[in-house]
Amino acid sequence: MTDIASLLTPPAGITPGLEGQIRHMVRAQDLATAWQGDVAALASAPVIWLAELACMRAVAAHLPQGATTVGVGFDVRHTAPTAEGMEVA
After folding, report:
1. Which carries the bigger pLDDT value, residue 5 or residue 25?
2. Pairing with 10, which of 20, 22, 31, 66 sits 20 to 30 Å away (CA)?
3. What is the model's pTM?
4. pLDDT exceeds 70 at position 11
5. Residue 1 exposed, middle or buried by CB count within 10 Å (0-12, 13-18, 19+)
6. What is the pLDDT of residue 49?
7. Are 59 and 18 in contact (CB under 8 A)?
8. Nearest partner of 46 among 63, 72, 26, 18, judged by Cα
9. Is 20 exposed, middle or buried (0-12, 13-18, 19+ CB in 10 A)?
10. How far apart are CA 1 and CA 34, in angstroms?
11. What are the CB-based long-range contacts (under 8 Å, 24+) for 29-36?
């Protein structure tokens, strides 16, 4: 069984300021209209998932074999509508 305290202590090397990147071409299934929304622009749910992937990439080299990350909160702002076929990074 895993000690809870060990789960709350970040592995060595995981420090504020690490960066992970992802580029994604917006598809029809990423649009708010695919999530019961009214606007054909990138929906929040895929934005959060892409952010989660970037975070995972930022710390991957510092995690033990077989370990992963867990998102605990999100502060998301849409600064511009993003249509199908556009790329987000």
Report:
1. 25
2. 22
3. 0.80
4. yes
5. exposed
6. 94
7. yes
8. 26
9. middle
10. 41
11. 30/84, 31/83, 31/84
The amino acid at residue 82 is: T
Residues pairing with 42 in the sheet: 31
**Maximum CA extent, the chain:** 47
Beta bridge partners of 88: 24
> Measured between alpha carbons, how far is residue 35 from residues 29, 30, 61 in Å?
8, 8, 34
Counting other chains too, the contacts that 77-81 makes at CB distance below 8 Å and 24 or more residues apart are 78/41, 78/42, 78/44, 78/47, 81/39, 81/41, 81/42
Tens of pLDDT, residue by residue over 28-52, are 999 999 999 999 999 999 999 999 9
Q: What letter would DSSP give residue 28?
A: G
Amino acid (one-letter) located at 64: P
